[in-house]
Write a structure and sequence with these properties.
alpha+beta; 6-stranded mixed beta sheet; 64% helix; flat
Length: 305
């Protein structure tokens, strides 16, 4: 299950220890970490997002659920973010974009007081014990929330109301005298721009979610490739050793060694095929998710077009 994770620590040192433990769990395969950062709350109420030596796999955080969560946790006072992280001060962050509830933000901010530091991450985990055990041992308080369903719904009532006003203005324009036409046309243009902005907002959210979904697939593919390469490299080393032994072996050993060589070579080929199949399955899954998102957006737009 994909979740947002926030672990609050008393100081920066413990937070970085917590981040290291989180990435170790990812390396061990207990969880998958899609994006991570350390957020420090200062005495004056401002917050700073600090990226570690290794950037989050999603890369730029603009428009992602994770980026929105960081912005919301930064609070109304201000959020200072390094350029490498990809957020900008003054950006407007939306709960719908973060895909979590207001209560989650309130629970975290009650504990994320000035001079405390949090590890914030978007992860996939099947059970909570690995993360909780590691973080609590370091002194962290763990908050997690499953990501809500994607909300692409256009505000139908607002758009319908604006369209009614637009129709009225156009009717007035058709009957207006020359001295009024320019003013009415200006109002029509402004209102039409607002309607298009509402529709574009849903489209922008869709595109951001598609990019995020594809980025997650790439993260998983990269991890699978790294694990495959490590395992295949070890088997290929064994294969080279067996072939060296085969070259020097007597006739009574050659048949047995050749059988072992064939078996190991088959395992290597099977491992490579398995990795290929998994990559193709991930690609199909990402494509299917993208199609669902497109259908939702199209349906939402159709209602108000």
């Amino acid at each position: 299950m994909d979740r947002m994770l926030v672990v609050v620590f008393d100081n920066e040192s413990k937070a970085y220890e917590g981040k290291k433990a989180l990435l170790q769990l990812d390396y061990e395969g207990s969880i998958s970490v899609y994006a991570h950062a350390v957020l420090a709350k200062h005495a004056d109420g401002t917050a700073t997002v600090k990226q570690g030596d290794e950037p989050g796999p999603i890369g730029t955080l603009v428009g992602t659920s994770f980026g929105s969560l960081l912005g919301l946790l930064g609070g109304p006072v201000g959020l200072a973010v390094g350029a490498a992280v990809g957020l900008t001060t003054g950006a407007i962050f939306d709960l719908n974009d973060a895909r979590i509830g207001q209560d989650f933000i309130e629970d975290v901010t009650r504990l994320l007081l000035p001079n405390r530091v949090a590890v914030v991450a978007e992860i996939e985990e099947d059970w909570t014990t690995p993360v909780d055990t590691r973080m609590e041992a370091i002194g962290g308080s763990v908050f997690r929330r499953a990501l809500a369903d994607v909300k692409l719904k256009v505000d139908e009532e607002a758009v319908s109301a604006m369209k009614a006003d637009l129709a009225q203005l156009k009717a007035e324009l058709a009957k207006a005298h020359a001295d009024r036409k320019a003013k009415l046309q200006e109002k029509i243009n402004q209102l039409d721009s607002k309607i298009q902005a509402q529709l574009q907002k849903a489209t922008d959210r869709l595109e951001a979610l598609e990019r995020e979904a594809q980025a997650k697939v790439e993260v998983l593919k990269a991890k699978a490739a790294a694990a495959r390469d490590e395992e295949v490299a070890a088997m290929e080393a064994d294969l080279a050793q067996l072939r060296a032994e085969h070259a020097e072996a007597g006739a009574d050993r050659k048949a047995k060694l050749q059988e072992m060589i064939n078996q190991l070579d088959s395992k290597i080929q099977a491992q490579l095929q398995k990795a290929k199949d998994r990559s193709e399955a991930m690609a199909r899954e990402a494509q299917a998710e993208a199609q669902v998102l497109k259908a939702k957006a199209a349906a939402a737009r159709a209602k108000v077009s």
